[in-house]
Amino acid sequence: MKSIKAKVLVAFSLIISLCVILGAFNIYSSNKSLAYSQDIIERELPLLIQDEKLLYNLAQRTAFIRAYILYGHESYKERFLQYTEESQVIQEELLALSDSDKTKELIEKSVDWRTMIVERVFIQYEKGNEERAKEILKNEVAPISNEVMEGFKELASKREELFVASGKTVIESGKSVKTTSISYPLQQSLSALCWRLLLPTSLPPPSLKLGTG
Predict the structure, then answer these.
(1) Helices and strands of the chain, counted as H and E runs
(2) In whole angstroms, what is the distance from residue 137 CA to residue 131 CA?
(3) What is the mean pLDDT of residues 96-123?
(4) If we measure between CA atoms, which residue out of 199, 195, 176 comes closest to residue 187?
(5) CA distances from 51 to 42, 45, 54, 158, 161 (A)
């Protein structure tokens, strides 16, 4: 009987151990997948959206300032100022989401770019110094705008690459959970087989004690 009891305990221990290992692995994989998904949704995606919005805003303002200096229509200047107000909101939201030194540097440069346009290009143009305004726009303003736009393109590109990498990690975690889920019935079948092999096919009959006299 002690041998039977020992075999039963071994079988139970084996089953429990396998269940615990598979359960722990599934929990780990699920938590890892959830963490990556939350990071993408709550942080990286909003950052990418703000990067793209600010990049579009800069491109629009560049087009409007060039049109204003070229044609002199006041509506182009008004549109530039309108997009400038929108850019300030985008910049605040971006800084609230990211503490990246690169992001801060690019935003500071975009502010310098805007200040140069308002305080130098506009003033020279409205004084009648059109050629001087064009010169400042070409030689001083344009290099800054190009640098800032390229910087935000680079940030957006890196975030897109991070999306791809995070997505692959989520997929791999999902595949691991699927694999262990499929293997669970096999593990149960194996446990049942071990149980069957460890236990005797029949129990020995109880011994009878015959009394004397």
Answers:
(1) 7, 0
(2) 10
(3) 93
(4) 195
(5) 15, 10, 5, 11, 14
Confidence of residue 208 (pLDDT cuts 50, 70, 90): very low
- Residue type present at position 102: K
The packing angle between helices 74-97 and 101-116, to 10°, is 160
Residue 188 has pLDDT above 50, yes or no: yes
Count how many residues are written for the chain. 213
Q: Are 163 and 40 in contact (CB under 8 A)?
A: yes
How far is 146 from 141, CA to CA, in rounded Å? Answer: 9
Say which residue the tokens 């503490």 belong to: 99
Residue pLDDT, tens place only, 86-103: 999 999 999 998 888 999
Structure-token pair, residue 7: 């075999």
Q: What is the DSSP letter of 119?
A: I
Angstrom distance (rounded) from CA 153 to CA 143:
15
Q: For residue 4, what are its two tokens? A: 């039977």
